DNA sequence: CACCACCCCTGGACGC
DNA sequence: TGCGTCCAGGGGTGGT
């Protein structure tokens, strides 16, 4: 479920608990969700957390000695701090913190996982190097260049993490609606001004979602187990057959790039 | 390259 | 209450 705002919400809510904390030990309940060293060393045991970094939908826990673990939440993953002693199902990795409490990686569907690296440059080159610019920091020029190179539907292109990192099915629909761009418009038919609008609206919507603690549709929770509130501000996602908030036309649902897509047939016109 | 079907896996909603 | 079906925010692969 988590897209950029949900991952950033997890990062922000975990920061005060984790920065400076030592990972005393780690319990690995499912090693097969780990890529790389699925042992105590790979999973940062003994290290002191120096930084939590995010790129797109991925999070990295970095220790002062340079090791890092990249966390990808997939559809159903969560990374949560909690008091010890309340284990639940699907908790694959649990770290014990010297400051008290535990850090838990849980993922029922197991579409997410952990990737271990000896150092940050390895993470950046081997994993994050495949990603486009982070959606909160991309420029209109970067977006325009990437979209010019493909004739795919703009929605499919924006979901491609190599084009821009962080947008998922919910926020792409919200952004395209706010820009009045039809989701099936060929990406290379968008001019610079439209790309500028998409870049600006992306940042605006994502930042507002972060301020609202993300969107909870089913089971997203932040680093403390609290649900998000931005689902109340969705204008198209999940609103198929309901009236458009601006023109009252009936919102349509269709499939684009294999994903359910909701848009306003009156407001969103093809380039 | 673009698109598609299909796979990974669990669980919630809904119909009977 | 149970059971079957469909659906879901994330990815990837191999075939056409």
How would you explain this protein's 3D organization?
With 271 residues, the protein is an alpha+beta fold. 25% of the residues lie in helices and 21% in strands. The protein has helices at residues 4-18, 120-126, 140-148, 154-159, 169-179, 192-211, and strands at residues 23-28, 34-35, 49-55, 58-63, 68-72, 78-82, 91-97, 102-106, 113-117, 252-256, 259-263. A hairpin with a 4-residue loop joins strand 4 and strand 5 (68-72). Helix 1 (4-18) crosses helix 6 and helix 5 (169-179) packs across helix 6. The longest helix has 20 residues, at 192-211. It is globular, with a radius of gyration of 19 Å. The chain binds a DNA duplex (16 and 16 nucleotides) through helix 5.
Helix segment tally: 6
Q: Major sheet, described briefly?
A: 5 strands, mixed
Q: How many β strands by DSSP? A: 11
Q: Gap between N and C termini, in Å?
A: 30 Å
β-strand percent reads 15-25%
- The sequence of SSEs as H and E is HEEEEEEEEEHHHHHEE
Low-pLDDT residue intervals, each spanning 5 or more residues? none
Quaternary structure state of the chains depicted: single chain
Strand order of the largest sheet: 2-9-5-4-3
Average pLDDT across residues? 95
Radius of gyration, in Å, reads 19 Å
- Portion of residues within helices: 25-40%
Shape: globular
The class by helix and strand makeup works out as alpha+beta
């Amino acid at each position: 479920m988590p897209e950029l705002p949900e991952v950033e919400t997890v990062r922000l809510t975990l920061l005060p608990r984790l920065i400076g904390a030592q990972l005393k030990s780690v319990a690995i309940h499912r090693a097969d969700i780990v890529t790389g060293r699925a042992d105590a060393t790979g999973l940062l045991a003994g290290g002191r957390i120096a930084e939590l970094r995010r790129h797109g939908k991925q999070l990295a826990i970095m220790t002062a000695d340079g090791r890092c673990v990249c966390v990808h939440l997939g559809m159903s993953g969560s990374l949560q701090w909690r008091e010890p002693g309340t284990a639940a199902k699907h908790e694959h990795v649990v770290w014990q913190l010297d400051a008290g409490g535990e850090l838990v990686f849980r993922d029922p569907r197991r579409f997410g996982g952990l990737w271990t690296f000896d150092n940050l440059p390895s993470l950046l080159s081997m994993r994050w190097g495949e990603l486009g610019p982070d959606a909160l920091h991309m420029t209109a020029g970067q977006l325009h260049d990437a979209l010019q190179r493909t004739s795919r539907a703009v929605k499919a292109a924006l979901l491609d993490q190599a084009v821009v990192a962080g947008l998922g099915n919910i926020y792409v629909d919200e952004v395209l609606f706010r820009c009045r761009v039809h989701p099936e418009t060929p990406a290379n038919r968008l001019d610079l001004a439209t790309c500028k609008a998409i870049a600006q609206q992306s940042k605006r919507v994502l930042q507002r979602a972060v301020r609202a603690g993300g969107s909870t549709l089913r089971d997203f929770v932040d680093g403390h187990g609290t649900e998000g509130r931005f689902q109340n501000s969705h204008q198209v996602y999940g609103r198929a057959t309901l009236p458009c908030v601006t023109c009252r036309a009936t919102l349509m649902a269709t499939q684009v790039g294999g994903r359910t897509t909701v848009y306003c047939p009156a407001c969103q016109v093809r380039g």
